[in-house]
Queue: 2 jobs
Job 1
Amino acid sequence: MNQIKEVTPQEVENKLEENEEFTIIDVREDEEVAEGMIPGARHIKLGDIPQSVDQLPKDESYVMVCRSGRRSMNASEFMKEKGFTDVSNMEGGMLKWNGELVF
């Protein structure tokens, strides 16, 4: 199994501030996302990932996010298996996020 790289919420915030090219995918459920998302994040529920990955470019950089980091790790592993090369998991999930939120 490929090792998934983990990034801290602070590293994700820094990447956003530096306008780095990457996509945040929030795999939480609708009611969790209603409590706030990282600005610019794309919402694809974990259960929708299998049928949604075909619409995502494999050569882009992705950071997967959930509430605590476990579901997003599962999504990261799935994407790696499907041929995505630059996938990271945000360690600790939204529980550790101190940055801005959009509703």
Job 2
Amino acid sequence: MLLLLPPSETKVQGGTGRSLLLRGLSFPELTSVRSRVLTGLAELSRDRDAAIRALKLGPQGHGEVAVNRAVRRSATLPAVDRYTGVLYDALDARSLPEQAREAAGRLVVIQSALFGPIGALDPIPAYRLSHSSNLPGVRLAPTWAEPAGRAIESRGGLVVDLRSEGYAALGPIRDTDRSVYIRVVSVDGSGHRRALNHFNKKTKGLFTRAVLESGIDVDSIEDLAAWAGTAGFVLRPGVVAGEWDLVVPDEALASTASRAG
């Protein structure tokens, strides 16, 4: 089983590991593609103003251009510790028990715009690049889609796709018999279904953490759904073939809104 996660725009700066070693990343068959995207990022980063525009950086984000210029020589961190934000705060990988963290190394793959699919424990530097960014001579979706999707499928087993649609497009899974796309939704008392934003990311993080702590590794979405029910989650077939809903009860939303107010 693989759990596919999106990355995050926000990242921890600095690191404790040696500089980037492309061939040390998971899916080494993607090394040449990674090198090409890195070359495009380096070319963009030579022109500060062009980089600011291409990366859609606000005034507080202008320093990201210097981060990108240093990406090949910067210190690294495990990918799952590098990313921050709602999903990764909920996952809280640094506090995982040792066995659960080892499971993350086997089961969790993060879809990076810069590096393609990488393992949760792969050492990566800080960088700034999103799925919608433009690089000189490199269109990210066409560049990544076929090789990244093929690399993920080569692992075999059930693929549980928790990526956002933008990042799923960087490595689409063609074998729908062995993959399932997860949408986080709420369902009210009348059965009306709606997609979520903040709770989408938080629920994915909590769900991933629960899978890792449980030690499960299943071969079918039905088995995963059966386990989910015992762990306090509702995972059920969605309205589109090949998609399943991870349901957040309306009362959970109301409770959180009440505390926030």
